[in-house]
Specification:
202 residues; alpha+beta; seven-stranded antiparallel beta sheet; 7 strands; 16% strand
């Protein structure tokens, strides 16, 4: 059982479906890291009431853990000039879905309709681009990462979880684009770029 206070356990215990977890994360403001970059633990996220992608993914994974699921996340790797993204994974009736904390109109929640983690990961490929020029940036994805590998103390840690963040960053990522098809990738249309520029939290 992750080491959390009774109050935090009570909050997370109510989040007994992926929908509820996603709605809970959506209600939290985006962590814009105004006082410096962070990698807050789930306990700190609940205290600060804000999160960015890896912070939201770890909180979602813990909520799933409390429901008897594996605390799984996936890393999406991008090319220079863009930011990696982390999502929490869940399964329903053999199909994969994802819970995602993002400030963008895209790169969001995924319904459980994907047969494999690769299918799910590639559902983000089309949406992952730079709004200034439409260049698609997703280059790879990790296999599902079980957060149990890091023990349990991180769940309520006061210090930033840079050890976990760095471990995920340095993991092997499976290429998203076949080498021979790199030259065939089309930039996003201006209409798509305009839509993707919408921010949820100013």
């Amino acid at each position: 059982m992750p080491p959390l206070t009774k109050d935090n356990l009570k909050i997370l215990a109510r989040l007994n479906t992926p929908h509820k977890i996603q709605d809970f994360l959506d209600a939290f403001p985006q962590n814009h890291e105004k006082n410096g970059v962070t990698c807050m633990s789930p306990a700190r996220v609940l205290k600060e009431k804000k999160a960015h992608c890896i912070e939201g993914a770890m909180l979602a994974a813990v909520a799933l853990w409390l429901q008897g699921e594996k605390p799984l996340i996936m890393s999406l790797k991008v090319s220079k000039g863009d930011d990696d993204h982390i999502v929490a994974l869940y399964k329903k009736n053999g199909y994969w879905g994802a819970i995602s904390k993002t400030n963008h109109a895209v790169l969001r929640y995924r319904d459980p309709v994907y047969l494999t983690p690769r299918e799910l990961a590639l559902s983000y490929f089309h949406e992952y681009f730079l709004t200034k020029n439409g260049k698609k940036t997703m280059v790879g994805y990790s296999r599902p990462i079980n957060l149990k590998r890091f023990g349990t103390k991180w769940v309520s840690a006061e210090d930033d979880l840079w050890d976990i963040g760095n471990a995920i960053f340095n993991m092997h990522h499976i290429p998203a684009v076949p080498e021979k098809n790199r030259k065939h990738i089309r930039s996003a249309h201006p209409v798509e770029r305009t839509a993707a520029s919408i921010k949820e939290w100013k």
